[in-house]
Amino acid sequence: MVSQAARGVSRRHALAAAGAAGAAALGGCSTKAMPSNVPLTKRTPGAATDVGFLTGLLGHERYAIAAYTAAIPLLSAPAARAGKQFLAQELAHATELEGLIEQAGGEPPKPPADYVLGIPGDERQLLELLHEAERAQLESYLNAIRWLTPPRIRGALAAIVSNDAQHVAVLRARLGLPPVPAALVTARE
Amino acid sequence: MNVRHTRRELIAAGAAAAAGSAVWAGAAGAAAAAGGDRALLARTLEAERLVVWCYERVLETGLLAPAALSAASLLLEHEHEHVSTLERLLGSPASARPLTPVRARRELASHHVSVDPVHLRTEHDGLRLLVDAESIAEEAWFATIGKLADGAAALLGAQIMACEAQHWTVLSGLAHHENVKLAVPYPFVRGSSGY
């Protein structure tokens, strides 16, 4: 499967798949966003700033969705099973964020038509792409949690970033790295 | 929404967070000491101490095979770090009253943990207890982060909670032959309060 991945991945392939992913994500998430149980409205103090943070997080989620969608067909069977599981969870995160953005009086932006995913040449490079997408998410969530206004939003985002940290642990193990390298998740791992 | 303004804020906030990550404990400590966050963090410290007790209990049984033993030993080191970080933050005495088996059983039962820590018979029993203990820690942090007033304390909580979630995945993977559907089952981690 590694050699198949090496043959199959080109920039055009990756970008085309990612474009399809963006469309799929948009279709799957944007019209189905439901209000969360976080008490957040556009009149909540700091809501406008929070919309900015949440929109940035949504961009990272959509990039990860595109990366998983492009990578899954090229991964070996065990890795693809994990990828499908994680993709479904990333879609749930994006839906949650879209709901929070709407609650705060914002409007989720349309996703870009395609994403630059590089030219992964084999399974290891595909896993590294996914690992980097997840790591970037950890970084952005941890930054946001510190600055978001209502504590209940911080709790909602902690539930998401903890799931992304689980993804990182599995991806690191598949890359032959220690799955839990430190006692605090810092996004440097 | 003023997008340019928000982007500037994001950049500034991101830079501040990056610069502050090395000194989170001090920043969180100052705020936690000053406010009601202290009581919240003290409760999570109790949960972390219970988790440490569970790891030590499972390790002393000798039931774990080498792979699980190696993983659990490392994860216990992380749990000790969580406890010492919170103790420093709260100024708690390093030698708090140790948990007795009776108290630990009572605490675990209050979280509906069905595995009896005193009568572990197989490796699977031990791993189940550790998974349940990690769920308790996740639940404690999820509830706490949603109430903390101080952003730096919330960041620290999220960093620990995410680590506990990774522990949960490693242990559940060991207990279920690395079945990813069981090791990472839900998109939102909320601990034993339900997903």
Compact overview of the structure:
The complex is a heterodimer of chains A (189) and B (195). Helices cover 67% and strands 0% of the residues of chain A. With 189 residues, chain A is mostly helical.
Could you name the ranges of chain B where pLDDT drops below 50 across 5 or more consecutive residues? 1-25
Please describe the biggest sheet of chain B, giving its number of strands, its sense, and whether it closes into a barrel. none
Task: Supply the CATH superfamily name of chain B.
Answer: Ferritin, core subunit, four-helix bundle
How would a textbook summarize the main sheet of chain A? none
| Percentage of β-strand residues of chain A | under 5%
Question: How large is the radius of gyration of chain A?
Answer: 17 Å
CATH class of chain B: Mainly Alpha
Mean pLDDT of chain A: 85
CATH architectural type of chain B: Up-down Bundle
Element pattern of chain B in H and E = HHHHHHHH
Helix share of residues of chain B? over 70%
Task: Count the DSSP helices of chain A.
Answer: 6
What is the first-to-last residue Cα distance of chain B? 33 Å
Quick one: CATH class of chain A? Mainly Alpha
Total number of distinct structural domains of chain A = 1
Strand % of chain B is under 5%
Low-pLDDT windows of residues of chain A: 1-16, 19-33
- Mean pLDDT across the residues of chain B is 84
Description:
The complex is a heterodimer of chains A (189) and B (195). By secondary structure, chain A is mainly alpha-helical. Chain A has one domain (2-35, 58-174): Ferritin, CATH 1.20.1260. Helix content of chain A is 67%, strand content 0%. Chain A is built from six helices and no strands. In chain A, α3 packs antiparallel against α4, α3 runs antiparallel to α5 (123-147) and α4 (77-103) runs antiparallel to α6. The longest helix of chain A has 27 residues, at 77-103. Chain A is globular, with a radius of gyration of 17 Å. The model of chain A is unreliable at 1-16 and 19-33 (pLDDT under 50). Chain B has 195 residues and is mostly helical. Chain B has a single domain, classed as Ferritin (Up-down Bundle), CATH 1.20.1260. In chain B, α2 (24-34) crosses α7, α3 (37-61) packs antiparallel against α4 and α3 runs antiparallel to α6. The longest helix of chain B has 25 residues, at 37-61. The two termini of chain B are 33 Å apart. Classes of the chains: A mainly alpha (189), B mainly alpha (195). The interface between A and B is large, with 52 and 59 residues.
